[in-house]
Amino acid sequence: DVGGSKKYLRTLLQGLSSTRPDYGMLCIGADKVDTETTHDHFKLAKALDIPIFIILTKTDLLSEDQLTHAINKVQQFAQTDMNMRAARVISEMEDIVECTKNIGRN
Questions:
Q1: Best mean pLDDT range from 9-18, 23-32, 37-46
Q2: b/e string for 86-103 if b means 16 or more Cβ within 10 A?
Q3: Closest of 31, 25, 40 to residue 73, by C-alpha
Q4: What DSSP character marks residue 20?
């Protein structure tokens, strides 16, 4: 568990290099999805070959159109920075079950 600020990047790198995590969770504020730090974390996970899942927080601060735009941006990052086929939006319990079967697969 590491904060997203650049000042914690060294701690993040130390933690990732000293352990081999099964997966990573990126928590991204929906109101600030397009940041350099977000891109850095996507690229770091890709470089270390760590499968990730993404939690979009602060969704209540956005209108429906803004939220759709934020989701599209995160999906775009997943495809460009991580070379993922697609990011999947979870809305039902069945989606969670299906995704856990495939975690670690691109």
A1: 23-32
A2: ebeeeeeeeeeeeeeeee
A3: 31
A4: -
C-alpha 84/C-alpha 12 separation (Å) is 22
Token couple for 32: 């600030």
pTM of the predicted model as reported, rounded to 2 decimal places: 0.70
Q: How big is the CA angle at 15 (ends 10 and 19), to the nearest 5 degrees?
A: 150
Q: CA 72, 29, 54, 17: dihedral to nearest 10 degrees?
A: 130
Rounded to 5 degrees, φ, ψ at 105 are -100, 140
Note the pLDDT tens digit of each residue in 82-99.
666 656 777 788 888 887
Please state, in angstroms and rounded to a whole number, the distance separating the CA atoms of residues 32 and 22: 27
Non-local CB neighbours of 41 within 8 Å, separated by 6+ positions: 4, 26
- Note whether 28 and 42 are within 8 A (CB): no
Q: Kindly state the greatest CA–CA separation across the chain.
A: 41
